[in-house]
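Table S7 (text form). Paired inputs.
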Amino acid sequence: MSTTTTKYKTLLFIIAVLLISNIALVVYTFTGRCEHKPPTKDQNKSGITSALQNEVGFSEQQLAQYKNLREEHWKIAKPLFDSMQKGKELLFNLTQTASVDDSLVQNAAASIASHQKLMELQSFRHFKQVRDLCSAEQLPRYDSVLKKIVSKRGKPQQQAGDQKK
């Protein structure tokens, strides 16, 4: 009988440890991981401006010129982006159609690609114009900042729990 009691106590101990660890995991999941929020669009804009000021060394005059260039850039880029988004919506709405003509899908994808190309060319011209604002000593720092910006474009934001330690 004592063997059965020992097995019973051991089994209860294991169940208790598992229950406590599950509760701890739930508490950690819902409280400890929600501290990091991805930057908003406004934070990204000010992030580039602050990088130009702090890392590249833009003067107040250069920052004012940059802000004007940015406004002009977005007057052109925003409609391109909106058109591309509408094209994507149209394309993926076709998934709801039972029978879709392949040429319709190809045309929708080509339209999206065309808008993407125009956006990339506009971005290139914009960053080239911003580079032209730099002094000779600022150029290497600007090129470094631009490399960071370009490498981050299109990548999803990492959540705090997804970051490697």
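Next pair, protein 2 of 2.
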Amino acid sequence: MLTKILSVSGKPGLYKLISTSKNLNIVESLLDGKRIPVYLTEKVVALSDVSIYTTEEDVPLREVLQKIKEKENGAKTILSSKSSNKDFFNYFGEVLPNYDTDKVYASDIKKLLSWYNILIESNIDFEQVEAKTEDEQPTEPEAENNEK
């Protein structure tokens, strides 16, 4: 399901891909259900393309979200945006002990936990492994790893 869940640069929250055309995508906010156009010039990342830097190899976001869900027993995270950076690093160290401390920042962890809470509230099944096809990709995949 994460191939159809998108992060749009400059827009808060997460979006579900509704429709794709030649020049734009129609997405629906998981926060308020409003549909908006997203043009191909905007930076869009499917959550299935995001991974987290670790000291060994990058870990797909889906696996990290599963570990958070196990830690929280399927509930929302206990941390809020007002928690300290130290709290975020300690929490993330429990979830993914081998994360790369030089490449993963507190802002990345905050965004990740925010995404997790949105997915839980929206009852999105991020544990399901999906096969990617060209028809499912809303935009061209990014060549870089994203740790956000």
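The chain is about 25% helix and 20% strand.
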